[in-house]
Write a structure and sequence with these properties.
It is a single chain. By secondary structure, the chain is mainly alpha-helical. The longest helix is centred in the first third of the chain and has 38 residues, at about 5-40. Helix 2 runs parallel beside helix 4 (about 100-120) and helix 5 crosses helix 6 (about 175-185). About 45% of the residues are buried. The chain has 11 helices and 2 strands, in the order ααααββααααααα.
């Protein structure tokens, strides 16, 4: 095999690996979207803004309170999740019996308001957020490339969180109650389960997943008010391709699409920005419910 062919293979493997890291963010974002839609039937367009808030909360904890990356991994999702509880109780809970369009319009408006407030306060330029010292060590030598240690950490965390969330919803009693509540809330409430509280905590959990993705993204991308709007359209495409409400489908699709996008940057660079949406169109034409969705 010639030298040019080896160079092409190495480039494809390199971009594919980096694409998996992007796919980790796609999977985490679409995981929260799938949880909220699958369990609550709410199209949460504010998800990108909540992802951005997670990154900003981590930045503020570091620069205003001296609290570093490791505590922020827990504190930022809790803080943003608490704000999600307030939003759900004050606004979103009033829309459950209405058409999906009302939830979409409300959360879209909330996203614009949140992004505007952060842009007014912090401007549009990115703010730096350095990874912790423990993850700035020697990169991993994969043979065909060296992968920064922090990006490898992001990949591992995304896999663990996605698998853990899927197991919680599909294989535990709490998940069974939640799935049953989405089908027949009065019956579940008759068994003594506080369904409204469960729904509120579910929305907060989906928001916290978005915030966790934001904390993980802060050292990789610049922390700026537009970072959520840059990802949310792709995250929605991932959820649609995987199947609206299918948690496993969204996670797998997120990783696979990140890989495809990365390899496309080598094989057909002009198409790398649109390949995900082309796949979405093809999937919707062939299977409107998505790859893992139910009609």
């Amino acid at each position: 095999m010639g030298e040019e062919a080896w160079d092409l293979i190495e480039s494809v493997l390199t971009q594919g690996t980096l694409g998996l890291v992007n796919g980790a963010f796609y999977a985490l974002l679409s995981l929260g979207l799938a949880v909220i839609f699958g369990m609550l039937n709410v199209i949460n367009f504010a998800h990108g803004a909540q992802y951005m808030m997670g990154a900003f909360v981590a930045w503020m904890l570091l620069n205003w309170a001296g609290i570093g990356y490791w505590p922020a991994l827990l504190l930022a999702p809790l803080i943003v999740g608490a704000l999600g509880v307030v939003l759900e109780r004050l606004m979103i809970s009033r829309l459950y019996k209405l058409d999906h369009l009302y939830g979409l319009l409300l959360t879209f408006g909330l996203a614009l308001i949140i992004e505007g407030l952060f842009r007014n306060q912090f401007g549009s330029s990115g703010l730096p957020y350095a990874p912790p010292a423990e993850l700035r060590g020697a990169p991993l030598d994969l043979g065909y490339m060296v992968l920064p240690l922090y990006r490898a950490w992001v990949l591992v965390v995304a896999v663990v969180v996605c698998v853990g969330t899927w197991l919680l919803i599909e294989k535990t009693r709490i998940g069974a109650y939640l799935r049953a509540a989405t089908e027949n809330a009065p019956l579940v409430q008759a068994f003594g389960v506080n369904v409204p509280r469960m729904i509120t905590l579910t929305y907060a959990g989906g928001v916290a997943l978005a915030a966790l993705a934001g904390v993980l993204a802060a050292p990789v991308y610049s922390v700026n008010p537009q970072m959520g709007s840059n990802f949310i359209i792709i995250a929605f495409a991932v959820v649609v391709i995987g199947g609206m409400g299918s948690i496993l489908g969204s996670v797998l699709t997120g990783f696979v699409l990140g890989l495809i996008e990365g390899m496309t940057k080598v094989l057909w660079p002009e198409a790398s920005a649109t390949v995900i949406f082309v796949i979405m169109v093809v999937v919707l034409l062939a299977r409107p419910a998505g790859l893992f969705g139910r009609a």
